[in-house]
């Protein structure tokens, strides 16, 4: 009985420790929208393997969730080009109601076979207003929920020994 309790308590401690470690990692897609000096940069962390699988679903195409089905026989290069095309056509950004054209600055060059492989994708664009008071963003439905944050940096030159104050 004593051995059983020792093994049971060890298992419980191990399980709770592993749950605590994985709790800090998001399994969903995340995006950081950075706005500064008439430029916008969107840094997306997405599970590329999960995303590509969303396009194998014929039923999703039938109900209009996707506009094209990806062939299971597509090469890695074809899959990546397909995803890049989907990203460009279904990611929408507006500043003060005006659409912003986005370019893909960074995109993965291979699919990883490991489950849960998150890759960074970077989109960039420019807008013509000094201080955007309203920004809206839409990502492709196939990415699933996207936890999005907005970053608007403030800059301050500090001279030697002097205090600087940021206001927000």
Can you offer a commentary on this structure?
By secondary structure, the chain is α+β, with helices and mostly antiparallel strands. The chain has one domain (27-151). The protein has helices spanning 2-22, 48-53, 58-62, 76-90, and strands at 29-36, 39-47, 92-95, 98-99, 102-106, 118-126, 135-138, 146-151. It is elongated and about 65 Å long. It starts with a helix and ends in a 17-residue tail after the last strand. Residues 14-24 have low confidence and may be disordered.
Secondary structure elements and their pairing?
Elements: H1 2-22, E1 29-36, E2 39-47, H2 48-53, H3 58-62, H4 76-90, E3 92-95, E4 98-99, E5 102-106, E6 118-126, E7 135-138, E8 146-151
Parallel strand pairs: 1-8
Antiparallel strand pairs: 1-2, 2-6, 3-4, 3-7, 5-6
Briefly characterize the structure:
The chain is of the alpha+beta class and 168 residues long. 28% of the residues lie in helices and 28% in strands.
Question: Which keywords apply here?
Answer:
168 residues, alpha+beta, five-stranded mixed sheet, three-stranded antiparallel sheet, 4 helices, 28% helix
